[in-house]
Amino acid sequence: DELSIDHTVYTVDLLGCGRSDKSSITYTNFVYVQMISDFIKKIIGQKTDVIASGFSGSFVTMACHNEKELFNKIMLVNPPSLTQLKQMPNRKDRLLKAALEIPIFGTLVYHMIVSRDNINNLFIEKMYYNPFHVDNQMADAYYEAAHKGGYYTRFLYSSLAAKYININICHALKALDNSIYIVEGETEPNGKAVTDDYCASNPAIEVSVLKETKHLPHVEAPEAFLEQVKIFF
């Protein structure tokens, strides 16, 4: 709401995520790169500033590299490590994906993974700096998104777990001349190493660290995050 005062704001649930359709396909980085580019071309219709959280940062980076005329400034919130993105599916990963996509067995395992307790623990252990400040509505939204769409919801998870969504973005980062800004949570594991790698690939990248936050700084410290957004955009 605050951003919409001075900007036209679009929020997008990517395919397989949130309340978007859950399709029984193999999800890849290219699927999301194409979706983001098509959304800007067909819906927004002009050069766009983008804020991407987590893994979505790799999609935006590649989309900008492929069609730079669609993008203006880019803000990445706790992007994935470049080392992680370089990991490609091996035989073990392909077997894992196949197992997770078996109709009954895969659905059972998936529902165990995205149980209410496991999602609550995810927020407490990995998402929030202060586990006592976990937003129950946010946890409920994650739980709903993980189950909305029935048994088809497991296909995105299987692609993620088997590294099918990974892609090496180092060459894209080096080639970009857009303004890129990284917002990192102070206690995000290996956060400084991750941002150092991004800056080594593209020295023009700027970094801001939000104190007393972890993986979701925009949720834990919205005012501090908005301040950074207003400085950058």
Brief synopsis:
The protein is α/β, with parallel strands linked by helices and about 230 residues long. The chain has helices at about 30-45, 55-65, 80-85, 90-100, 105-115, 115-125, 135-145, 155-160, 170-175, 190-200, 215-220, 220-230; strands at about 50-55, 70-75, 180-185, 205-210. α1 crosses α2 (about 55-65) and α4 (about 90-100) packs antiparallel against α8.
Describe it.
The structure is a single chain. Helix 1 crosses helix 2 (56-66) and helix 4 (91-100) packs antiparallel against helix 8. The chain is globular. Strands 1-2-3-4 form a 4-stranded parallel β-sheet, with helices on both faces. It has one domain: Rossmann fold. The longest helix has 16 residues, at 29-44. With 233 residues, the chain is an alpha/beta fold. It is built from 12 helices and 4 strands.
Sketch the major β-sheet.
4 strands, parallel
CATH architectural grouping: 3-Layer(aba) Sandwich
Number of strand segments: 4
Mean pLDDT: 95
Strand order of the largest sheet: 1-2-3-4
